[in-house]
Structure formats: C-alpha cells, structure tokens
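Crash report, auto-generated. Payload:
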Amino acid sequence: MIAPAVEALARDLAGLAEAEERFRDELTLLIAGGRLLDVLARAREAGFAVLTDLTAVDRLPAEPRFEVVYLVTNYMTPGRLRLKVRVEAGDPVLPSATPVYPGANWLEREVFDMFGIRFGGHPDLKRILMPDDWEGYPLRKDYALVEEPVEFIGHTPKVPSAIIPRTPRTPPTPPR
Amino acid sequence: MSALTRETIVLNMGPHHPSTHGVLRLMLELEGEVILRAEPVIGYLHTGFEKEMETRTYHQNIVFPPRIEYLATMIEEHAYVLAVEKLLGVRAPERAEVIRVILAELSRIASHLVWLGTSAIDVNVTSMLMYCFNDRERVMDIFEMVSGQRMMHGYMRVGGLQWDVPAEFTERVRGFVEDLPGRLDEYERLLTDNLIWRGRTEGIGVLSYDDVLRYGCTGPIGRGSGVNYDVRKAFPYGGYETYDFDVPLGSRGDTFDRYTVRMEEMRQARRIILQALGRLRDGPIMVDDRKVALPPRAELVRSMEAVIHQFKLVSEGFHPEAGEVYSAVESPRGEKGYYLVSDGSNHPIRARVRAPSFNNLQALPVMIFRNMVSDVVVAIASIDIILGDVDR
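Recovered output after restart:
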C-alpha cells in the first residue's frame, strides 16, 4: 500500500507532473526539468524533509537517454516519493537541487562523475569518486567494462557478461 | 607579518592515516589548531561495484554487498536480497525471515563492537580494541558455522537462505547474547565515567537536528541528534514490524550521544535476537517458486521439470518484470538502500547502492567546524565510516 502522505503529495503535485507510475507499492512522478526545483520545494514543504537518494539511469538507446531520479522521504509520517526527470543525451543539464536540499551536493557530483550530467548552479561541480583527470563517464552504457589486460599467452580478456549473457524476458509459457 | 594578521594554513590529512579508518583524505584549513574549513577527498577505494552489478545476473550479484560494506556483512546481504525479492514480488518463508533477523542483528552487534574498539583506540583507550574483537570473534564464529565464511558469506539467497542453520545454532547464539549485557556493562564502566573519554567526546562533532535532515544523515548520527528515524520502524521489512524493540535517541548530537545510542542499540539488538530465537520453528527456508529458487537436489533425479528449472536458473537466472524498486534496511551506519531497475532481462540495467556512509561523511565539515585538529579523529570515528561503502 502506498502511504497516505505520499498519495496526498502526489495529488498536490498532480498539475506539475507529466505522468505517474505505480510499481510494487512505490509511486514515481515524472517531472519536466524546468519544474524540478518547484516540485522539490513543495515536497520539502509537505514534510518530505530528506533527500534520501539522487541518482541517474542510462536508458541507451532510448530517447531521452538519461533519467535522473530523486527519492524524497518523509520521516514524520513515513512515506517515500520518487521523482524522475528525463534528460536528453546532447547537452545533459539540470538545475541543481542544492538550494532546496543541501545534501544533494555530493550526490549531484557523483551523478556528474558517473554519467556526465551537469547541474546548473551547483556550488562545486567536479568529479568525486574518479580522479580529476579521468576521461569518460563510467556508468554510461557506452562505456565498456573490460578486464585489465595481463601478459599471459593465450589469455583473452573477457567481460563478466560474457559468462552469463543478458537474455530478454522469455514469454510466459502456456499452462499445460 | 604582524601578529594581528589572521593567518591560515592548509593541512593535508590522509589518505593513509590510521585514524581515517581506511583511505579518506581531508584537506583542513586551520587557524592555529582550529578548523575553519574541511574538505573530504574520497574515491580512493572506488571499485565500480555498481557497474559490475549491471553485467551480472541478480543471483551472481549477491557476492557484492558484503564486499561493499565489510563490517555488517549479513545486513548487506539482507538489504540486497530484499530488494530483489521486492522486484520479483516474492517473500521468503517465515523460518528464513527469522534466521535473517537473527543474523542481521548479530551483524549489527559485531559492527558496533568494531566501532567501539576502534573509536576507543582513537582516544588512546587501547585495551578496548582487544575486548571488543574478542566478543566480535564469537559472532564471526557463528557466521562461519552457519555459512562457512567469516565475512563474505553469500548465505542469503533471493527467496530464502542457502541452506538451513546447523542444530547447535540456537544454543551458540543464546550463549553469546546471554553473555553480552555483562560485557557491555563492563565496557560502559570503562568508558562512560572515564574523564578522558567524556572530555574527548562531549560537545565534540556536534550536528544539529536540522543539519541531519539537510544532509540526509541516518543511523546513529541522526538518532544521536534526536531525529527519530529507524528504517526498521518507519519502513518495516523482513518481519521487523512484529518485534518489540526501542529506538534510542540522543539530544545534543555530539560524539558522546552517538556512543550512548550505539551501546543501547546493541542491547536492543539482543532483545530482538531473543524474541527471534523463541520463534524459530521448523519449516522451509526457501520459497516454493521454481522460477526463483533452485529445486531440491532429490527432485532432480525424478522430475524432468526440476531439471529444466535447474538448468534455466543456473544458465540464465530469473527474469523479473520490467520496473524499478527501492528497498532499504537499517544498517549499523544508517539507511542502506538498493535501487534496482529491471528491463525484464536477467541482469539489472541499473543497480544503485544508497550508501549511508556517503551521506554521513558529507556532514563531517559541519561537525568539525571550529573544533580542534585532534577532535577530527574522534569525529571521523563517531561517523563509523566504512570507506568501501562511501566509494563503492
């Protein structure tokens, strides 16, 4: 069951959201980038005082490619709401959430570091986990994961997914 | 230069420094010995777990959680398998849930004991470390007895447990938790009224109630500042809603309050374990769903169906529905969450680890503002930082 506090906030934000998803008792609102700060500020006012998580998903080859995901939590009347913003691959930029939730500072730096999504108005947007001079954004889908080459004869570096390859969902088998 | 000119120096601390509990680097701007500004520099232990998890099946990924956060290993596995179970929409049978709760709470005690020993050694109470590790060793022995491994267990499975616990499990756990209060009283006699301990912890590393919310700090850091948030109470998981336990809170938000909160949490963990031991009834330890759990060995020689299921699960793994879930547990360091995104294939397309240490460390510069350099060591210890968790 979705918590009443979350339902109330979702109703309040209904005019600002583009779509709503419900999956496994979790509510996700799809927000346009331009309305993000407004929505976050209203969530915070409604008692969702904590930004628990901020991350991104690379949906390559889908368009728009990136989804930036905000998870806000209400401690007083427990409830969580996920807010999602889609970002184009060409020039991925969003307004920074730091004015509303100062804790977004490092989380946004991590998203920048791993996905190359920039946050306008961020106080100190630079790499956080990777070295400052690193090239590329490791969590992007087109950033290949390879085994480090070693100098053994006959060793072919392979990626772990070559061991059990990705398989799409099989259609449900008809009952006998 | 005139004596009245304000002069600051920048001091680099770490990354290789014993008191940073790993590889944390701090850039401190000092005026004399007073900290004006601090900037944590992290990433030295970045291993790319999230990227690795995208390339493996859900089942293979069980090996990563205890390696991300290596002090509360059972809680980490619990967090991950619960997230996958939520994604699949299955729930482990009752006996498996009870055993998981016992192991998770033992893990919490073990982790807090390491914290107690290492923070005490940071303020020069060197004997504490030996006492605490001695007790922790008993938990490690129980884990080894149950899973075969002291730390990187891989004991929890999506939908249950790898195998059932041995017959002497109950007795060994009961033996440990019965000795625990006496040991904790002894440690508190050593520390609580110790003038040096109080002097080094009281009023040090203060974090206000509002700052806890602002920076998203959780766990004993948040509760030490009076924020009444425990994932086990707010968003119960794995049967925690049926256990009776209290959430200790501090009021001043200093290092001493975090110490009292953690000591009380160990006692509450013991309460939960005793209740759980009373509920341990015989029963299955894996779900019955053949699309998720391997069929029992005995079935393989009789049923073709079982062989096919076994083959499918081993060679491909299961395929959860397309969708996304966030599932969190209360780790000794705070809210540990897994955000899994599925596109219907046998690998997650995104596995995000919401690390409590990451958010808690972000508040360190606030905690140590205008404190002394020697207090930085105490403040870092009070966060109970795990760099593997921060850098992932």
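Post-recovery validation: Residues 71 and 160 of chain A are 30 Å apart (CA to CA).
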